[in-house]
Amino acid sequence: MTRILVVEDDADVATALRTLLTRAGYEVLAAADGRAGLRRLFADDPDLMVLDVGLPTLDGWQVLERTRDLTDLPVLLLTARGAESDRVRGLRAGADDYLPKPFGNDELLARIEALLRRAGPARWAGAAQDEALRLVPERRSAVWRGAEVRLSDIEYRLLQVLVRNRGRVVTTDQLLDQVWDDPQGIGRDRVKFAVLRVRRKLQQAAGGPDTDPIEAVRGLGYRYRGDGAGDA
């Protein structure tokens, strides 16, 4: 059954969407804020996302940006804003279609059907990173030097950010912002301990400390080298 993730904070609208889509034969996954929406995206691998712009914790623009970092999943934006500038912003940010509120049920279903027809299976970014490491987003794991490493959601996102910036230092503050949604830098020790966990898992998978691809840059942050050399 085709699964649609609905990220909508208005309870009445969310209930109406669930009823409409369920009657149309879709399985509906629901989230009431941006962070919950991303968690469901990571965990449940939907076929399409219906995304409201005006969300708490993370707004729809932020959710869309992070979604596009990971996958080409079809995204239909819903918003009360009907201005052309917002429609253009949504499409430029990677949305596949845009429907202002209020909308007709038949139009919504027609747009969803059109997006699903055009889309193949969603492709997650980072399937092949380099010769030594491959990220496997659908299982939240990494294959490092031929050995699969199971990671938590935080550990996976942390490694993905580092790999995406291969060869460049990613500061602790940048990691807090991109991985933990903590741009104020509260709880900086979380980064250190999460990096230690990832490095330990990679070392154990590949057989020793000399196989660590993450380098700690004292006073700045961390860098993914990919060559098996790192320091603690």
Please give a structural write-up.
The protein has 232 residues and is of the alpha/beta class. It folds into 2 domains: 3-118, Response regulator (Rossmann fold), CATH 3.40.50; 133-224, Arc Repressor Mutant, subunit A, CATH 1.10.10. Helix content is 42%, strand content 20%. It has helices at residues 11-23, 34-44, 60-70, 84-92, 105-118, 153-164, 172-180, 189-206, and strands at 3-7, 27-31, 48-52, 75-79, 97-100, 133-136, 141-144, 147-150, 170-171, 214-217, 221-224. Strands 2-1-3-4-5 form a 5-stranded parallel beta sheet, with helices on both faces. It has a 3-stranded antiparallel beta sheet with strand order 6-7-8, with helices on one face. The longest helix is centred in the C-terminal third of the chain and has 18 residues, at 189-206. 30% of the residues are buried. The model is unreliable at 228-232 (pLDDT under 50).
CATH hierarchy class name of the largest domain: Alpha Beta
Question: So what's the overall shape?
Answer: elongated
Structural class per helix/strand content? Answer: alpha/beta
**Parts with pLDDT < 50 across at least 5 consecutive residues:** 228-232
Intertermini distance: 47 Å
CATH topology of the largest domain: Rossmann fold
Quaternary structure classification: single chain
- Give a quick account of the main beta sheet: strands, pairing sense, barrel closure: 5 strands, parallel
CATH superfamily of the largest domain: Response regulator
User: Strands of the biggest beta sheet: in what spatial order?
Assistant: 2-1-3-4-5
Tally of alpha and pi helices: 8
Radius of gyration: 19 Å
Tell me the total number of β-strands. Answer: 11
Domain OmpR/PhoB-type: 124-226
Pfam families: Response_reg, Trans_reg_C
Modified residues (4-aspartylphosphate): 52
DNA-binding region: 124-226
